[in-house]
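1st attempt posting a full record on here, be nice pls
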Amino acid sequence: MTEAKPLEPEKPSDPAEKALRKLEAGLGLLDPADRYKALINAVKASQDLIELADKKARFALVIMSVLNAVAVLLVLRGGDTLLPSSGALAIIIRIELVAYAALTVYYISQAISALRPRGVRPPPAHDLPSKVEPAISMRVLFYADVISRDRASYRNLWLGIRTDNLTTELADQLYTLSLINKEKFAALDRLYYGLMVMTVMLVTVIGTIALHKVGG
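the predicted structure (as C-alpha cells):
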C-alpha cells in the first residue's frame, strides 16, 4: 500500500493573483487581525492626545487665574496709593487694564474651545447601514450609532460583522479623532500664546504703575 503524499498548496493560475501574492510577500501587508490591532492602538493614541490637550488647557487656566488674581489685587487693593487718578499715566493704565480684560475674555474662549466636548447627536436609524457588506463601516462602535438602533437589531447585526467592517470603521474614527486633535491643539497654541501676551501686558501695567510712583 503506497503512502499518500501530502497535498501541496494550490498555485494561483491568474497572473493578477500571482502578482498580488508576490506583493504581499514582499511588502509584508497586514492581515486583518494585525490591521485591527494597529488601528486600535492608533485610536487609543489619539484618545490619549485628546486627554493630554485637556490637561494642558486646564493647566493654562490655572496660570491665567494667577495672572488675573494679580491684576485684581492691583485694581481693588491698590486704590489711589498705586493707581493714579488723573493725568496721562492714569489714562494709559486704564487703557492697559481694559485691553488686558478684553484679552482675558478672548483667551478664556480659546480654553473653552480646547475643552469643549465634541459629541454628536444620534443619527436616525434609517441612515445607518442594516445589511453587512464587505469593507463597509457598519457603524457599530460609536455610542451615537449604537443607541440609534434597538437592542435586538444591534445584536443581530453583530452576528454577521466581518473584520474588514470593523477596520473600516476604526479608520473612520481615527480620522475623526485626528481632526479633533487638530482643532484642540490649534486652540491650545492660541491659548498659550495668549498667556505670554497677558503676562507681558500685566508686567507693562506694573511698570507703568512703578513709573507713576517714581515720578510721584
